[in-house]
Amino acid sequence: MEAVLDRVIANLSGASPVQRGGLPRNLIIMSHDFNPSVLASMDLESVKGLALEAGGRTSHTAILARSLGIPAVMEMTGFLAEVATGDPVLLDGDRGQLVLNPTSERLDSARIRLEECSLMAEPPAATAVPARTRDGVAVTLKANTELPMEVRMARRCAAEGIGLFRSELLFLRCPGRFPTMASQLETYSMLAREMHPYPVAIRTLDLGGDSNDLTTGVSNRQNPVMGLRGIRWSLVRQDLFATQIEAILRAGASGKVELVLPMIASVEEVREAKAVIARISEALAAAGDLPGIPVAIGAMIEVPAAVLALDGLAREVDFLCVGTNDLTQYLLAVDRGNPSVSHLFKPLHPAMLQSLQRIAAVAKECGKPVRICGEMCANPFFAVLLLGMGFTELSMNSTSIPTVRKIIKEISLASAADISAQALRFQTAGETAGFLLSEVGRLVTMDLAPYVREVVGAAASDRATPALEPPWTAAQESCSHRSARRS
To answer: Annotated catalytic sites, by residue?
Structure first.
C-alpha cells in the first residue's frame, strides 16, 4: 500500500520518477519494508545487502534478494532509529546478524570468512548434468527466476530449465501502463533461447498478495492474498490476459515454453483459462504465426481447494507445479509477510506434509509430471524429505542448485523414502525438524550447518525469537533466525 501511495503522490505532484542509477558502491539498503519492484529497478551491482524491519524469509522481496545473490536479513525490528545514511554496517545473512558501526577487528574477521566461503564454494557445473541419487534415480533441478538477467545465473548453476518464471516484475517495472505484447515476447523469447534445449515455464500474472500494484487494477483491500489475484484477476481482465497468452505462445518459436496458471482452485477456472488460450492459439494458427510445438499448460497447486480437488484438476492440465510458499500460507492461515505471525509459518506442519504426500500420490496415479516450485526445496533437509515423497523435479533459486545437487548424489531414493515415511508419523513440526536434522545429517558428508537455522525456524513455536547475543546497540549485533538466508 505504501508503494502504491508513493506512486499516486508522485503522479499527482508531477514529480519526476525516482532515478536509481549512480548509487554509491557497496550499498546496504535499510528500511522498514521494501517493494520488490523497486529492488528490481536499481543498479544491482551497487547493492550488497538488504536489512528490513518487516518481511520474512518467504516474502517476495526475500525471494528476489536470494535469487539475485543479495544477502538479506528480515524482521530486525527497531534498528532504523539507530542508523543514518552513510553509517558503516556489517550484514551477515547466514547468521541473521546486523552490526552497526563495526570495529576494525570485526571487519577483519568478516573478510576472513568471505575468503573462506570463496575457497569452499563449489565450482558451477559447465553443463546441466542430471543429478542422480546413489541408487541411480535421476532428479531434475530447475531454477525459479523473476528477472531476465537471472537466466545467466541459472545457466551458470547448471539448471535444467526454468521451472517457474514469475512474470510480475515485467508488469511492476512499467509504472502507469502494461507491458505490450511485443515487449513481453522479447523477454519470453530471450529466456527460451538462452535455456535451450531446456524448457522455460512462464507463470501468468499473479499480483494481489505482497506484489500489490495499482496499475493492474488489483484491489488494495484488506487481506489481498485472498482477494482478486492470480487466475481470478486474469479471468476478469481477459483482454490483458490474452495479451500475455499471445506473447507466451509466440515465444514457443524460440524454444521450449510452458505456461503455468497461478492460484487455481477449481476445474472451472482451468477450463475458462484454457478456452482463452485456445481462442488465441486458433487466431495465431489462422494467421500462420503459431509455432509447430504446442505449449504445455500447467497449474499451480497452492491453495487447499486445489489439493482436495486434485484428481479432477490434474486431468485438465499437462503438468503440476506446487507452490509451497503460498500453500503453507493458505493451509495454515498464516500471512507469510506478517512478522507477528511468522512463527506460525511452518512448512513442516503435519497438515502441510500430508498435503504434499497427497499431491505426489495423485500426480503419480494420473501420470502427470509434478514439480516443487517453492523455497522449501532449496534447503537440503527439505529436499531430501520431498525426494522421499516422490518429487523428482525441484525448482529453486539458482544459487541453491549446486548444494542440492551435491546432497542428492549422497542420498539413495530408498533412504529418502524411509525418512519421509517416518516424518509423516510425527504429530508436530518440532518433532519432524529434530528427526530431519538427525537422520539427514547422519547420511551425508557435507556441512549442513548453514541450513539448520531454517529447519529449526520452520518448527519454532515461540512468538519472539531470542537474540543469540545481547540486544544490539549502535555497536552490537541483533539477530533473528527468521531472517532471509544469505544467497
So the answer is: 60, 373
